[in-house]
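We modelled the chain as a single entity of 543 amino acids. Its sequence is:
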Amino acid sequence: MKSPRITSRRSTLKLGVAAACSVALPFSLWNAGKAAAQEASQASSDGEEPAVGTQEQPFTFDTLSAAMEKRAAEAYVAPDATLPDVVANLSYDQHRAIRFRPEQALWRAEPGEFHLQAFYPGWVFKDTTRIFIGNDGIYRQHVFDASDFEYRPPLDPSAFQSLKVDGVAGFRIHAPLQRPDYFDELVTFLGASYFRALGAGSRYGLSARGLAINTATSETEEFPRFSAFYIDQPRPSDGAIRIMAELHSPSLAGAYLFVITPGQTTTIETTCRLYPRTDITRLGIAPLTSMYFFGENDHADHEDFRPEVHDSDGLYIIRATGEEIWRPLKNPQTLALSYIQESSPKAFGLLQRDRNFLNYQDTEARYDLRPSLLIETIGDWGNGTVELVEIPTDSEVNDNIVAFWVPETKAAAGQPMEFSYRMRWGLGTQDPTLMARVSGTYVGVGGNAADAKDNPSSRRFAINFTGGTIHNLPDDAKIDPQIDVPSNARLLDSSVSRLPDGGWRLSLEIEREDSQPVELRVKLSMLQRIVSETWLYQWTSTT
């Protein structure tokens, strides 16, 4: 969710509020309250019906899936989001003043690797979710009491002590990430189906969500919501925590299974079973939401002492063939949509590659420590498209980047769908490779700088490749560029040169021939073998 104040986004992140940017035609960036309110109102579930995991017999993921399939066959019923007035009318600052008491965390008094804390409802979180704790497959709802929370000024604690609220806004799990005697925040589920996780040494940045429905289409976007969670009580020897969840929206019902393993890179093994009750125009699987304000490839007029401001700097894809693709992010002047067709890709994600503090100079936000998130597909995902949505923004408080997988097979009423994937959260989510990777993209006006003659219809691109087998080759090594320029542009000049600290730079000057987007594609080869990942870039008439 977005903070309504430009100065409060970081405070919001510290509270674990899942950042979200709603996308609906005409694709204008909404203010925080409006976006969050739509998520809360549209991300509805059949909340009036009892949760399905309350039987006396063991309750499994198959049981949950069958119940969600049955639910999808029934007419959708919006939840009754009635909260006591004192809760429903909480302002942003008042809601922030309600904190869970750490000493009340579930399992704190028991030996083990996990603690659980809840978030109080109110502000934009008017639809609550219920939490069930399971032992040997039998789940009981855990009802949080008013005394589990602290009510700080300007609130009057006595106004909340007698309130009964069936459910909470969300929850977070803590686990030792840095040292064995301190429980760090590991993962947060809060707001619709949004959640975020951390690996060791990282700070909250981008978000994931369970599902995207009709994002960046002419249809009204839906925000499915996790309406109930079934969490296995961890045993002392458990190194992972297992969570099941019900997901609801007007268009479908779904069952989710998460197995979360903390570490240097935190992994979340995910299975989602989806049961559409209507045909869906665009179904986004494993959606990611991030922020890119400006960076090395943006030269807009930012009166800011910081060289770069972003939670992620590129979209990364590993194709089924093993080819690696890097698409630098940008903050466009108009909405930009990119569609990368794939057949069961091995992985895709939004990464923060630049880990050099000097390139950010922000001692508070520490964008150099924001996690990357890689989605590793499990099984055959078939044909589809990795879709990237880049939305103009004039502030770093807005999450303006969305990426997800769109299966070629459309979601149709009564036709179940299942996807499994592994999420990798952390500072370093990519495996070592022999390929050189893109470490920087720099864009400027074309023309001859020495003659002070600019060519407004051309752009010069400088792409740095580092690492891999070519990193430390001698200056006279023969590196060949493979440059793919579409028919609406032409290549004016190209060259490959050695970087002083290792690696290579490919310089291009491209001239456009019409106003349509120019899709560029380059990689490096040596001795007729590919030695780098593939760089993709969409050059629009306004960038």
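As a brief sanity check on the tokenised model: The chain is about 5% helix and 40% strand. The two ends are 28 Å apart (CA to CA).
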